Write a sequence for this structure.
């Protein structure tokens, strides 16, 4: 194994977990309700604080951080409904559960729209109340933890936009930090969508080469000749269409990093040529006679088992050993489910922000569905599901009805009817139309002309619908 230039001190472990018990503020004017909640919550291990009106509640909230607020809807003076936006404005991260009497459905809907997490009806069922509280607190803590983790990762590693707290991912982060400073070749293995390219970029960004180019190339997607001329460049007249000489990516990446994606499907001839460059960092333009020396770091990625490809005779053994100096194995998402809430929060923030929307969160049952699902498409599939949920959502809470049916195990009809229990047929049909339009746009990479053409409607009609339905048009440049 080549020497590492300057291994980092990796003694620090994951960020400190929250050790204090969760804290809850109850705002209710009825002494009886306050007392029974105090007993109940204290028995469950929560630290409870009481306020008997809105003003006092707001004051306490400004002094202390709470994991949750239980807010009575029918407070005297300033009602819970009037108080809620003030709490949300000053403490947007703190979840609020409304306490309501029977027969106030309209108010509840309004409260959820204004950002309440959930509601309980008096007289409540203790077990259900506790389950709701537990999930709201857990979610709040995951959000806080996410923020803290991002800060830590950024400070320790200069990682941006990478999330993970599972042991396996923390080990990956340590390895990345350790190998980044050297010039060693790195092989990243993992199923599709596990974050191979993201990790390759992190290695580059944490290396002394960070100011030089990071050049990705999908080696699996090109026929051999094209791939070779792309990598090595060519001189004028090297082949029929070579009307001018052209630099190859090995030169473009000089001083920086060349990321060779899907390396396993590269042709055998090309493999031999790559091997030569890896050995002495020298190559020739196609049709050229002069050797060119470059200083390029290679990071390769594969989503199939390269060792097996060697056994099958599809991949050169000598090249495999050259590439396999340091291997980063990215586990599939289903093997690190504890990362799902963090990733979800990360994508909720990202897409709400990108679409200019207020913060979004997931309902408890939607989150449960995400944690239980097996994610064959890994993080990318999760990211796409969240993005769709954010685009389709019309309020702050994304329910499981806005997740794809194969994830929640529910049919499209179920989802629609649950989403609109009291809606008119007209409203439900409009909901269907909106979802279908968003789905089509997504499939057309948000190209409205393509979508209109495939729907066989004029572009202007599609535009009108998009405007009327308030569909946010996504910009596709994520980098
Ligand atoms: N740990 C993570 N934190 C945040 N975002 C992630 C993480 N892992 C993956 N992603 C995101 O998921 C998407 C897929 O990641 P990426 O393209 O790196 O995967 P990949 O393994 O290269 O996939 P493929 O094999 O399909 O090319 C990207 O948008 C990436 O930003
Ligand atoms: Mg990739």
């Amino acid at each position: 194994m080549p020497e590492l230039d300057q291994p980092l001190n990796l003694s620090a472990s994951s960020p400190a977990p929250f050790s204090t018990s969760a804290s809850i503020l109850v705002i209710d004017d009825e002494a009886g309700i306050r007392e029974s909640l105090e007993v109940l919550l204290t028995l469950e291990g929560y630290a409870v604080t009481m306020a008997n009106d809105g003003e006092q509640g707001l004051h306490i909230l400004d002094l202390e951080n709470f994991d949750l607020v239980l807010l009575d809807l029918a407070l005297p003076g300033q009602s819970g409904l009037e108080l809620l936006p003030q709490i949300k404005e000053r403490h947007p991260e703190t979840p609020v559960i409304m306490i309501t009497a029977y027969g106030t459905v309209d108010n509840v809907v309004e409260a959820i729209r204004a950002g309440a997490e959930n509601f309980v009806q008096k007289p409540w069922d203790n077990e259900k109340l506790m389950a709701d509280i537990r999930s709201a607190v857990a979610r709040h803590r995951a959000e806080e933890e996410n923020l803290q983790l991002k800060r830590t990762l950024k400070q320790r590693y200069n990682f941006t936009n990478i999330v993970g707290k599972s042991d396996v991912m923390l080990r990956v982060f340590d390895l990345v930090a350790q190998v980044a400073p050297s010039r060693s070749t790195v092989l990243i293995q993992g199923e599709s969508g596990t974050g191979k390219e993201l990790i390759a970029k992190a290695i580059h960004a944490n290396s002394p080469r960070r100011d030089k180019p990071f050049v990705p190339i999908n080696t699996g997607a090109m026929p051999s000749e094209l791939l070779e001329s792309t990598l090595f460049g060519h001189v004028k007249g090297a082949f029929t269409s070579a009307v001018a000489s052209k630099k190859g990516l090995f030169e473009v990446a000089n001083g920086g990093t060349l990321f060779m994606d899907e390396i396993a499907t590269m042709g055998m001839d090309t493999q031999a040529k790559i091997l030569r460059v890896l050995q002495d960092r020298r190559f020739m333009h196609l049709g050229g006679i002069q050797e060119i020396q470059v200083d390029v770091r290679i990071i390769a990625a594969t989503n199939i088992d390269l060792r097996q490809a060697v056994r099958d005779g599809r991949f050169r053994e000598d090249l495999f050993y050259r590439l396999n100096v340091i291997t980063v194995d990215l586990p599939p998402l289903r093997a690190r489910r504890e990362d799902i809430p963090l990733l979800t929060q990360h994508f909720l923030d990202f897409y709400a922000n990108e679409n200019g929307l207020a913060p979004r969160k997931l309902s408890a049952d939607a989150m449960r569905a995400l944690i239980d699902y097996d994610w064959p498409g890994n993080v990318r599939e999760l990211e796409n599901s969240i993005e769709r949920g954010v685009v389709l959502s019309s309020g702050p809470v994304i329910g499981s009805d806005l997740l794809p049916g194969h994830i929640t195990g529910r049919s499209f009809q179920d989802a629609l009817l649950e989403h609109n229990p009291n809606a008119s047929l007209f409203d439900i049909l409009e909901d269907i139309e909106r979802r279908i339009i968003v789905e089509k746009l997504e499939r057309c990479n948000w190209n409205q002309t393509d979508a209109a053409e495939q729907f066989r409607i004029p572009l202007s009609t599609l535009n009108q619908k998009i405007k009327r339905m308030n569909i946010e048009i996504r910009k596709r440049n994520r980098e």
In short: The chain has three domains: 23-136, 167-330, 335-468. The CA atoms of residues 61 and 459 lie 50 Å apart. The chain has 20 helices and 16 strands. Residues 1-19 have pLDDT under 50 and may be disordered.
